[in-house]
Amino acid sequence: MVTISRRGLLTATATLSAAGGATALGALSAAARPPLNAPPPDPEFTEVSVHDPSVIVADGRFHVFGSHLAAARSDDLLSWQGYADLVTPQNPLFEDVTVELAEAFAWAETDTLWAADVAETPDGRFRMYYCACEGSSPRSAMGTAIADRVEGPYRNEGIFLRSGMWDEPSEDGTIYDARIHPNTIDPHAFVDAEGRHRLVYGSYSGGIFLLELDPATGWPLPGQGYGTHLVGGNHARIEAPYILHSRRSGYYYLLLTFGGLDAAGGYNVRLGRSRDVAGPYLDPSGQDLREAKADPDLPLFDDASIEPYAAKLLGNHRFSAGPEEGIGAGYVSPGHVSAWRSDDERDIFLFLHSRFPGTGEMHQVRVHRMHLTADGWLVVSPHRYAGESASDARSSRLHRLDLEGDWQLVDHGRAISPEVVESRPIRLHRNGMVTGDRTGTWRLEGASRATIDLDGEVYRGVFTRGWREDTGSWALSFSVLGADGRALWGRQEM
């Protein structure tokens, strides 16, 4: 169980066991081994729909802001309450957003807003980074609005970045070219490890870019144009950048979403990392993500050229032996993520929206724990966060005998596709062998580290415990990542 302190930070109620060496085969009998930690109480969820949720902790609560001026709050990441939605004069985030942001709507030739991001200012106020875009072209406007409270009302500060100025000079002085210049949407404002204020943004078009900001105004420092190019180009379907730094690993992690956002679009969450906030960001196989571009000689939105880049952390999937469709069956087009970590990094949470098998375009917010692997990558827990503490999630008294048995395996693969990946049966044996649909070996190291070798490819990550929505019970699971950039999820069948 986790709680939010008055300062808005998560504090865990238990501690992780110290990592030790690999558990010896058969060292303890089933009767002699210590029992697993008692599971936390069964969760109770109150769901909310916020597309493209961007998280901020303020006033002791988690808040997410998203597209179409939607916003919601939660005390515990289980029960959500929406308090704003739709770009209308009645939306409480502005006195009248249709008047306040009229210039942005006029430039973008639209009446709506896309993914927003809110950051706390050095003087304790809140700055919203908004973006207006019609959607069928990269003609967009990005600006800021300021408020004394995270829930508003926000007052417009103006537009600081534009795109889609056809046949006219762009922000860098050259004629705008949508193949190399960005679409100015999907902002994420943050402070890097050296205390410099940054903005990462972009969607499709020329890719993802990074700017340095003036901490006083929240606007880009002069002379940067569109900033430093990090990923994408030639209209590759890459968007929704989010950068998270880990003091433990020393890496900046660039979270991205590949594909299209609707149920048939194959939205999926990807990852690269760098020692430098400005890149280059590499994937597990060492590829530079600046090279992840569509082929200009192929039709628009050439996914095949970008599929090999960036670790694919999760995408369309369904665990078999569960419901065929609906909530609890799996995810369809999960993506546009944000992240939050506690100061001690015991708690790292991934926020996303997802659709679900057989439910069309209905979407909801989901929160998952993330874990650092032994080689410094991030993996995502297979099950949504359900109130478990860090030690509950990592099953701190886990023994290899608890892990033997039948499992369902999801291989998230590399594809950008509307197809839903179905889990396949495997069995973890006490002697460290894996049989079933995939064959190889497995190993538990220390308290919860997982190493799984399948068909000659080594995957590293963690064994965890999570909440099965389909059965209403707690189950053991694993999440591992290979050097090929493929994430595997496993769930034990009881």
Q: How is this structure best described in words?
A:
By secondary structure, the protein is mostly beta strands. The protein has two domains: 46-393, Tachylectin-2, Chain A; 400-492, Lipocalin (Beta Barrel), CATH 2.40.128. Helices cover 4% and strands 38% of the residues. The protein has four helices and 32 strands. The protein has helices spanning 97-100, 102-108, 390-393, 400-403, and strands at residues 2-4, 10-12, 54-58, 61-65, 71-74, 81-84, 117-120, 126-133, 140-147, 155-163, 188-191, 197-201, 208-212, 228-231, 238-245, 252-258, 268-274, 311-314, 317-318, 330-341, 348-355, 364-372, 378-380, 405-411, 421-422, 424-428, 433-436, 440-445, 449-454, 457-468, 473-482, 487-492. The strands form seven sheets. Strands 24-26-27-28-29-30-31-32 form an eight-stranded antiparallel barrel. Strand 30 (457-468) and strand 31 (473-482) form a beta hairpin. The two termini are 24 Å apart.
Detail the topology: elements first, then pairings.
Elements lengths: L1 E3 L5 E3 L41 E5 L2 E5 L5 E4 L6 E4 L12 H4 L1 H7 L8 E4 L5 E8 L6 E8 L7 E9 L24 E4 L5 E5 L6 E5 L15 E4 L6 E8 L6 E7 L9 E7 L36 E4 L2 E2 L11 E12 L6 E8 L8 E9 L5 E3 L9 H4 L6 H4 L1 E7 L9 E2 L1 E5 L4 E4 L3 E6 L3 E6 L2 E12 L4 E10 L4 E6 L2
Parallel strand pairs: 19-25
Antiparallel strand pairs: 1-2, 3-4, 4-5, 5-6, 7-8, 8-9, 9-10, 11-12, 12-13, 13-14, 15-16, 16-17, 17-18, 19-20, 20-21, 21-22, 22-23, 24-26, 24-32, 26-27, 27-28, 28-29, 29-30, 30-31, 31-32
